[in-house]
Write a structure and sequence with these properties.
Elements lengths: L1 H17 L7 E3 L2 E6 L3 E2 L6 E7 L2 E3 L27 E8 L17 E6 L5 E5 L10 E6 L11 E7 L4 E5 L4 E2 L2
C-alpha cells in the first residue's frame, strides 16, 4: 500500500513539473490596426503611424501523456519567447505621388524609420530599410520628410512574417498643412 502511494505521489510530481508555465513560449497574430499621430500634419510636425497586433494567440505546448489532457495546458508566461513568426519586411506605399522619386505605388520604405527597443529601457529610431527579424506586437513608424507636392496621402502597409504570411493595413487619409 505504501509503495502504491509513493508511486502515485511521484506521478503527480512529474505531472506538475511537466506542465509548468515554461511551455507557453510564443505568440502570433493575423491582423494589425493602424493609428495615426494626427490626420492633419502641420508645418514642423512629424507623422507617426503605430501598428498594433489584433487577434493575438498565445501558443502553448499541450501534454497528453502521463494522465494529462488538453485542459492542463497552462498559459501563464504569455508569449515570453516573443513572436512565433517574426516580422522580416515592411513595405509602405501611398495612393498619391509623394515626391519626384516616389510616384504612386513606389515603395516609401527609405522615407520611414521605426522605433526599436535597445534593451536598456530606451528606444531609438532606425531606418526601416534596416529592419531585421523584428519581434514585437507593436510597431511605431515615423515619416522623415513631408511630401513635396501638397497632396493628401493614404498609406498602404504590407508586413511580411518569417512564415511568408502577409498582413495588410491602411491608414486614414493624411493631410499636410503648410
Amino acid at each position: 500500500m505504501r509503495k502504491g502511494i509513493k508511486i502515485l505521489i511521484i506521478v503527480f510530481i512529474v505531472q506538475t513539473i511537466a506542465s509548468c508555465c515554461g511551455h507557453v513560449k510564443f505568440y502570433d497574430y493575423d491582423s494589425m490596426i493602424v493609428s495615426e499621430s494626427d490626420l492633419v500634419i502641420e508645418d514642423g510636425e512629424n507623422l507617426e503611424l503605430r501598428l498594433d497586433a489584433q487577434n493575438i494567440d498565445f501558443l502553448s505546448f499541450r501534454l497528453s501523456q502521463l494522465g494529462h489532457n488538453q485542459s492542463f495546458a497552462y498559459d501563464c508566461d504569455k508569449g515570453w519567447g516573443g513572436m512565433k513568426h517574426r516580422i522580416t519586411d515592411i513595405t509602405i506605399v501611398s495612393d498619391s505621388d509623394f515626391d519626384y522619386s516616389h510616384a504612386v505605388g513606389i515603395s516609401l520604405d527609405d522615407l520611414f524609420m521605426y522605433s526599436k527597443f535597445r534593451g536598456d529601457g530606451q528606444y531609438e529610431w532606425v531606418e526601416l530599410t534596416d529592419l531585421n527579424d523584428y519581434n514585437s506586437n507593436s510597431i511605431t513608424l515615423k515619416l522623415k520628410t513631408r511630401p513635396t507636392n501638397g497632396l493628401n496621402h493614404k498609406f498602404f502597409i504590407t508586413i511580411t512574417k518569417s512564415n511568408s504570411e502577409l498582413i495588410k493595413v491602411e491608414s486614414n487619409t493624411i493631410e499636410w498643412v503648410e
